[in-house]
Amino acid sequence: MGIARASIEKPILTWLVILGCLMGGIWGFATLGRLEDPAFTIKQAVISTGYPGASAEQVAREISEPLESAIQQMGEVDTITSVNQPGRSLIEVEIKSTYDGEALPDIWTKLRAKLRDAGRDLPQGAGQPLVNDGFGDVFGLYYAVTAPGFDDAELHRLATWLRRELLAVEGVADVELAGLPQEAIFVEPELALSTARNLPPQALVGAISAADSVVPAGTVDRDGQRTIIEAPEGSDSVSEISGLSVGVGGEVLNLYDVAQVQRGRVEQPSLMIRHDGTEAFTFGVAGLSTENIVAVGERVDARLGELFVEMPAGVELHPVYQQHEVVDEASNAFLVNLAMSVGIVVLVLALFMGWRAAMVVGTTLLLTVVGTLFFMAIFAIEMERISLGALIIAMGMLVDNAIVVAEGMQVAMLGGRSSREAATETAGKTQVPLLGATVIGIMAFAGIGLSPDATGEFMFSLFAVIGISLLLSWVLAITVTPLLGHYFFKRGTAGGAGAYDGALFRGYATLLRGALKARWLVILALIGITAACFVGFGQIRQQFFPNSNTPLFFVHYKLPQGSTIHETSEDLSTIEAWLSERDEVVSVTTYAGQGASRFMLTYSAQKPNPSYGHMIIRTGSIEEIPELRADLEAFGRSALPAGEFRTERLVFGPGGGDPIEARVSGPDPAVLRAVGAEVIAAMEAASPNVLDARTDWREPELVIRPAYADERAQSAGVSRDDLATALRFATDGIAAGVYREGERLIPITVRLPRDADVGLRDQPVWSETGRHFLSVEQVIDGLDHEVQNTLVHRRDRVLTLTVGADIPPERTAAEVFSEIRAAVEAVELPAGYALDWGGEFENSAEAQESLGRQLPLSLLVMVLISVLLFNAIRQPVIIWLLVPMSVNGVALGLLGTGLPFTFTALLGLLSLSGMLIKNGIVLVEEIDLVRAEGVALKEAIVTACVSRLRPVVLAAATTILGMLPLLSDAFFVSMAVTIMGGLAFASVLTLIAAPVFYYVFFARSERRADARPEPAVA
User: Fold this and answer.
1) What percent of the residues of the chain are helix, what percent strand, and what percent coil, each to the nearest 5?
2) Which InterPro entries does this UniProt record tie to the protein (predicted)?
């Protein structure tokens, strides 16, 4: 007994399947994890190492080089990059894409062990390498807090309280605070008094450092009881620090006798944040990876609502980004799109097959979708942008199986057969071809889903969801569809009107006979059209991932290297004032010194730099962004000519970096800068679309270097360290300890009073051997000025300078890259130097290379399945000849709409190929079956194709119309146009080209069979 017949004769099992899909789908939808973007692992760690007093080139040579050498010994490492600044090394380690997220903890443990060993050999004065492997944490619930009138200590207490309370919320993994004012206790000795009493700054530092230290004081054992003794509590207020005693030359002085002690903000903080022009700090909430972010967000919002009642008056919370609301909106939009797609399918089927067929196929389609949600929940596949899109993509292929079975049953029953006979006949003929075609459709996406790189991880849910939904659609098509057909379809009478006697079928039969007669002309026309469309396809703009449909965009502002954070912040206030007058602006969050916390998986903040400014601008809708962005760029460039002013749209998908990047590597920094200047000149000369070309080394900075007078200084007992300490005391100050305020550790700094009118040359320096002060001028031969690189980049242990550039909003990176590539590659490089491309070109090439490595296996499996289905060669060749022609409709659709060919359009093209092969298999299989009944070749082709006309046309129509809801989605619009245009043309290929190819391939064997003499009859 066949599966289809059993589903009718044992309906209880089929109804269990139906109820399982319905109830499981409802449960799955309620319990599925929800994210905005698929969770892909950022396989990077950041290693930070301090080396106070060293130049950037010293840091690169003495810190980064030995650490990178140790890291390079790990076979798991793909790329090592470092940024070297005066006193600080920042190394980023990227792990090979073949290692998944589960392998990373062991890799990070191995990395720490390597760095611990290498750290022992670092020069004196260098700190221990600190590894941050939480570089990719996403704080999707991101808020700014303003509290005008509150002092800094109150702000810290407020932030600490908020963090503590939110960490207690179920499902919250971490809360990150940023932008809080940085405070310090400043001890400023009166210069005249301290020099008169021979009180060096080091004496103050020593007294302060021991004032609040935490040390053990031992234990006491008495009567068998062990009692711990705690050390006396340290100084815990500014007044108590002022009262500290300092011993000098046998005399004990109080600190307030010789110095002013005050609490205040540090002069050069690392980050300053404002929200809508008001000083603010931010907190970002990250949910556990196993939690539904929508549920976590709702719990966080509820808790914030409770906490808001307890907050002091004047404190305001401002959402910057709320991932849970974005995800919830996307989920609701999916339900709307799903309902629209199912409604469109039912309406089209009702028009062309009647309401009974519409109910049968529509119900099967709905069960397939909800059943897919059930299996997604079982396999822990979250509901996010890609998996939801996969369901929409699959919609066109899901309906095929049900249409073929329903149409076959309906026709057979109209011819007088019973529902059981019709189900047995239809499923018996089509279930194996449909299964093979379904597997081929799944394999079309295997190359993307099984790719080991970030793009493959990002898109894996696409492959998984399409695989689940298509296999489920086949199962339901041969079980549920026959049962529903048994209930809904009416049985006709044998000898009644033919199912294909209508005008549409007769017209198609006439057209097909004409095409077979003029087959060579048809083939030439197809070749010509395909060649023309391939040429047109080359004119389509290329883009890796499209812009996001989130109504956010960014401002990047960069003053010359060496500018202070206050200059950066002041310049950005000019932009804030201009934006405050624009009605389309909802909010503006401003950052000076670095970027925001990672509030989206695809967002990457700039590294800390006082001369860098960043703005997150939210508008009412994405339609308002282009005009506002253009006006803002024009204003920003004119109002702030001293800086580099750029805007940037948020982009979907993994990647990073500038749209255009060229890397120059070699041993000499001066040569690298010269070659970088040549590359910029070549770019700008080759294309007017290269905007704001720049290098990541930025401008060199002016450095003052005292010329240490060896003989005079050493005879006076002043070492180089003594001189450096004196200069640090006169400028940034000397770290002397910490002031404990609850869980806060506020640094204590000894420094020259800010109002002291003392030049560097006149600054006193202490002689430890002479026990007296000298002026700096007495131990130096002047102050030399030199220009130094303060941003030194390395890549894989080689000095590397990267030239980056932006492009106009209306152009794609691929277009501009093609304009400049030849000119840049023509730049003559000195021996020992190399040029490599980065940016979108590299990201796209890596993704396509990874896809290319998987694609041969996928294609091999697809070809083998098609060969095994027919147990022949010619039929699969006919089907695969159609595949290159699938690009015809794609080229026409994208050129007609002006949309670029994005990575999602590539998905649409793969989907289209799967649909085309699937239709081709069902059509060719039908021709073979009709021929097996003894019908002549030409008539068999016409008969089979006419019988497949309605399923092919309806599948195409329902798919094309089902894509309509996606035309308003920025992420999927190019894919929707690809499928709509391609499938419209592919239907013609299936119904005209496939029969013509079949006739050409089999006409000769048919003639030979006709010419063979009949066997003699005895």
Assistant:
1) 55, 20, 25
2) AcrB_DN_DC_subdom (IPR027463), Acrflvin-R (IPR001036)
Residue 343 in any domain: the answer is no
SS3 annotation, 254-321: EHHHHEEEEEEECCCCCCEEEECCEEEEEEEEEECCCCCHHHHHHHHHHHHHHHHHHCCCCCEEEEEE
Cβ-contact 900, 542 below 8 angstroms: yes
In a domain, residue 637? The reply is yes
Q: Return the structure tokens found at 294.
A: 């929508």
Cα 316 to Cα 585: distance, rounded to the nearest angstrom: 19
Q: Are residues 372 and 460 in the same domain?
A: yes
Structure tokens at 769: 């051997």
Same-domain pairing of 274 and 261: no
| Closest C-alpha among 133, 46, 90, 138 to residue 603 | 138
Adjacent-strand bridge partners of 216: 230
Summarize pLDDT for 69-100 with one digit per residue, the tens: 999 999 999 999 999 999 999 999 999 877 87
- What's the confidence (pLDDT) of residue 851? 67
pLDDT tens digits for range 971-985:
778 888 988 888 888
Cα separation, 270 vs 182, whole angstroms:
8
Is the domain of 174 the same as that of 205?
Answer: no
Residues 115 and 156 in one domain: no
Cβ atoms 880, 863 nearer than 8 A: yes
* Claim to verify: residue 1005 and residue 900 sit in the same structural domain: yes
Report the alpha-carbon distance of residue 824 to residue 663 in Å, rounded. 11
How is residue 153 written in tokens? 């200590």
Domain end residue (candidates: 772, 788, 804): 788
140 contacts 285 by C-beta, under 8 angstroms: yes
Query: Rounded to a whole number, what is the largest CA-CA distance in the chain?
Result: 140
Tokens of 92: 């980023």
Phi then psi for residue 93, to 5 deg, are -115, 125
Mean pLDDT over 946-966 rounds to 81
424 three-class SS: helix
Encoded tokens for 658: 């500038």
* Number of DSSP helices (H) and strands (E) in the chain, helices first: 33, 30
In a domain, 141, yes or no: yes
Residue 496, class by beta-carbon neighbours within 10 Å (0-12 exposed, 13-18 middle, 19+ buried)? exposed
Last residue of a domain, one of 73, 105, 135: 135
Same domain for 882 and 995, yes or no, is yes
Q: What angle do CA 879, 881, 886 make, to 5 degrees?
A: 95
Strongest mean pLDDT among 31-45, 94-108, 569-583: 569-583
Please tell me the distance from the alpha carbon of residue 731 to that of residue 836, in angstroms, as a whole number: 42
Q: Which of 270, 287, 73 is nearest to 176 (CA)?
A: 287
Token digits for 72? Answer: 């390079």
Cα end-to-end distance, the chain, whole Å:
41
Domain for residue 461, yes or no? yes
Among candidates 1000, 769, 771, which has minimal Cα distance to 878? 1000
Judged by DSSP in three states, 752 sits in coil
The 10s digit of each residue's pLDDT in 2-31 is 888 888 888 999 999 999 999 999 998 888
Number of domains the chain contains: 5
Measured between alpha carbons, how far is 111 from 44 in angstroms, rounded to an integer?
11
- Are residues 126 and 159 located together in one domain of the fold? no
- The CATH number assigned to the domain holding 560 equals 3.30.70.1320
- Whole-model pTM: value is 0.81
Q: 672: which 2 tokens?
A: 């690298």
Share of the chain above pLDDT 70, in %: 92
Pick from 324-333, 373-382, 519-528, 531-540: least confident: 324-333
Token digits for 839?
């940016």
Domain identity same for 59 and 115: yes
Per-residue pLDDT tens for 160-189?
999 999 999 999 999 999 999 999 989 888
Q: What is the CATH number of the domain that holds 922?
A: 1.20.1640.10
- Cβ-Cβ contacts under 8 Å for 414 (sequence gap 6 or more): 490, 491, 492, 496, 499
Residue type for position 67: L
